Structures are given as C-alpha cells and as structure tokens.
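Re: duplicated header lines in exported structure tokens

Our pipeline writes sequence and tokens for each protein into one text file. With two proteins the header for the second block appears twice in some exports. Here is an export where it did not happen, for reference. First protein block:
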Amino acid sequence: MAINTKIEADQNAPAITQILGAFVAQHPSGGWPAEVEHEAHRTFLNWLGCAVGAAHHEAAWAALRAVQVLEPAPQAAVLGRADRVDVANAALINGITSHTFDFDDTHLKTIIHPAGPVCSAVLALAELTGATGRQVIDAVVIGIDVSCRLGNMMYPHHYDRGWHITGSTGTLGAAAACARLLGLDTEKSIMALGIAASQPVGLREQFGTMTKPLHPGAAAKAGLMSALMAREGFTASRRAIEAPRGFAQVVSTKYDWSEVTGELGSRFEISFNAYKPFACGIVIHPSIDACVQLRAKGVTADNLERLDLRVHSLVLELTGKKEPADGLQGKFSVYHGCAVGLIEGRATEDEYADDVVTRGDVVATRRKVVATIDDSIDEAAVDAVATLKDGRQVHVFVEHAIGSLERPMSDADLEAKFSGMSDAILGADRTRRLLDACWTLGAAGSVRDIVALASAARP
C-alpha cells in the first residue's frame, strides 16, 4: 500500500533568511531600551553561574577528555577550570556545562533555553578576538532574538514532533550572535544563517541523559563554525530557513513567518526570559513551589498520607519518571521534585545528587505523590492537595511559580543562585568579583578579564 507523505509547502514565504541577516548585520549597537540591556546582563550572569557550577560534573570531564584526544590549540577557556581548548570546543563544553544542571534561563513562550547556545559561542569567540563587553552584549541580545523568534514561529508543533528546540533554534541563534561579533556584513550574515540552518541538533528522547546538555553545546559549536565559515567565503542558500525544503518547513508543520518579522528590531525576546530557582525541568516548578508552600503550612514528609496534583498533560509527558535512578533522571521527575520541595524546602542542584534521588525518605515521599492530568490546568500552574494522616487536607493552587515573568527572580536572587554554584568552584571572593564584572560587562574594554575570573579553578 502506498503511503502519501507529501505535505503542502509554502512556496511564497517571505525572505526570512535575508531579513534576519540584515537585522544581524545592521541593527545599531545598544539599539534597545535600558530594561532590555539590563535583562541581557541578567541572562549572561545566570548562564555563567550555571556553566561554572557544573564545570566538574562527570559530563564535563567526559566531554573534555574526548576533546583532548584531538589535541586542541589552547585558544579559549573552559569555564570553572584551568583547562584551555580550541575556540569551537570551548563553546561545546561551556554549552554542555551551562545546561547540565538544567538550571539555566527559559524563554517561557517556547521553552527554549536561549543563553546556552548563544553565550557559550559568543564568549569563546570573544576571548579569541579580544572583543569588548559592548560587542558581547550586542551579540547576545541579537542572537537570542533570532533563536527565540524562530522558536515562536514553530512552537509547539516543532517541539511536539520531538525536537529539543533549544538545540535546533540555538544553532541559528549562535550563528547570528557570532556573525554579529565578527562584524560580518549582511551578505555574509545571511550565509552564516544559511550554513547553520542545515545543522539543527537535539532530540527530546535524550532528556534525562548527558546528551540533553550536549544539545546547547553542539548548537554553540555549530553556530560558531557557521559564522567562521561564512567569514571565509563559504556559501549557503539565501533561503535556507524559509524555502519549501528549508529549515522551518522541514522540521515543523507550523511556520508563522510573522513571528519572525513582527516588530523585528523594536521588540526583543530577551525581555521575556525567565530564570529558574529550581534545578530541573521548568514544568516541575509550579509543583515544587506548591510543596514549598505546603511545607510552610505545616505539611511534612512524616505527617503526609498522600499528595494529589492536578497538572497539564505536558508535565507528565516531560517529567513523569516515577522512579528516577540518578540525578539526571530526577530532573525529569515531578515526583522527586515534590519530595525534595516538601522535605528540604528547595530544589537546588544539591537536591539532584544521585544519593539524594535514591535516599530512603525521598523515595518514600515521592511514592505518596499522585499526579493526574487535567488540561484545564495551565502548563505553568498546579493544583495541589495534601491529605494528612489525621485526615486533614491542605490545599495550594499555584498559578505562576516563583521564577516566572509574573513572579520573577530579583537581581539579589540571581546573585545568591550564582554564589551557590560558584563559591565551591572559584571561592567566595573570586565569585563576588565575577558577579560585579557581570553586572558591568557592557562597559568592559575586553572580555578577557571576566574570562580570567571565571576560568581559574580553585586549588
């Protein structure tokens, strides 16, 4: 029996690749409001803390050992360590570490973690070229705008198909950012995007393994190389994103071109970035928040008989692991998140250590959690009812979790989160100086000073 797999293509799509190439090359430096500028610094700071914090995770060690087999030139730093590798592999490894804890930023409309691919590529390249802080901030804002606008264009269909949208759009965002940092003209910026369009990376099947954080790292490396190749004259289709057999129409059945072109250059997607207070999948955050609130109301692991959650179907699709075996799997278990939220009152990276995931009291508590799908509940919400052993019930409804745009983390919250990850790696004094350098990055004469602070491993 013949199977018809033909999908009607849009033959008349606008020139998205060229439009974005012109935006990357021509948008004025600092051409956005002060609040966008501040958000760029918050995004960079949060990304850097995550990358430094995971610098000695086993995933980082494994990736670094693999890279060192190639005997790379010592061009750029591996953050949080004394090691140096070539610029492309620095982008790779720093991209991996920035997402290893699953503690990085989130563009909530698309669930993209935009800083990992973009900042990892930009900082490695900026160290090599001696770029200024101003150039780095410009590249970060523009690169994130490209990746998130492309995400807006395809979400949720592209994600539902199984693509990890952070990696697939991140390659294009990293290419845009690096093209900007290199000062490529419009034509070469178009080529950089075109080259990147043939390199989408990331499958959702990999969630809960080391390969999930590989996705932003691989996107960072591919995007950086796309920009370098374009600079040297390597060519690609000028319609690589929008053509009937181009990126968007191949990887998604939805491609709303207006999401790319609408208010381009006046609305910046980095304005809608959010930051995680909990080191796990974003859809678990409302449930953890609810458990922290229940704990404050006197609910404990000892007096709890049963915890009922009503959640959107996406929560269980992404984080329905009832018996996670290690920390990486725990990050995709709403049951584990609720257990540590109730027992510890938090869910930092410490609560996702392997020995915590398998600890007896944590296992016993997560087995009391019953999650039921109710798609009348928003993805960003949860309805939680704790039934106690004495028969009493305690109810909490979380409409917007801490860390959301409606309840954002403050600058002080971000600093505390950064210190919690970095102090053990760099020491408290160096961490404090690094934080100060992040807040003033846009005025820095060279990024090499901030790299030096962030890359020297503590003895």
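Second protein block, exported in the same file:
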Amino acid sequence: MAYDVEKPDEQWRAELTPAEYAVLRQSATEPAFTGEYTDTKTKGVYSCRACGADLFESDTKFESHCGWPSFYDPKDSDAVELVEDRSHGMVRTEVRCARCGSHLGHVFAGEGYPTPTDQRYCINSVSLRLTPAEG
C-alpha cells in the first residue's frame, strides 16, 4: 500500500527513538502499564508520533485496565487502517496509521465494555503524541 508519508528505513531510524522505531516501524508492543498515556485523562487529540496525523480524541478514551491506552473509536474512519494480523498464533486486527503505515496497536470487539462501539482500540503510548486541548 502507498502512504501519503513514506520515508526510507534509515530516515525512520534517525527520526524515532529506538522504542518508537520498534513499535511504530517493527510492530513491537510496549510492556503493559508502562506507557505515558495509559492512565492519562487530559483532554486533547492523540496523533501519530511518526507523522503527526490526528488519530484519536480524548473523549473516546476509556478505562479498560488492560495496560495500554484504549479508545472506542478513531477520530475519523480514514485516520486508521485495519489489517489482519496472524502473528503469534492468533488472528487479530492490527491498527496502523493510514497516513504513514506505522503500527499503533490492535482493535478488539465484543469484549463487553460499556462503550458506544463495543470496540477497544488498544494502542501503544509510544506510538502516540497527545496535544492538550486549549483552555
């Protein structure tokens, strides 16, 4: 797939920290309960740490107690790309930034959380950057 933001691997490595690169470009997962946004309640917009695209709004973030920031809906349906992931002996749905293709996390459905969509976008903190709302 062609993305609006494409860079050679060497450029991604130079622009991202090793932890950011591992998650965003190599589909790694940060350890549970270690990310900076796991328990954040700040109002604002969460964007892709690799390219800056707006991905999620704080009003769709909810407490899932899973160890990673959880959202029930992306900011725009076009903001994320969903890809079947058959790694680790499971079938999951990977969530990527639709603008640069960076790995964000996974989305799960039907877990029974009291959210409008019954979906949990389980996203790595290191793949996000929060811009607090003004005021």
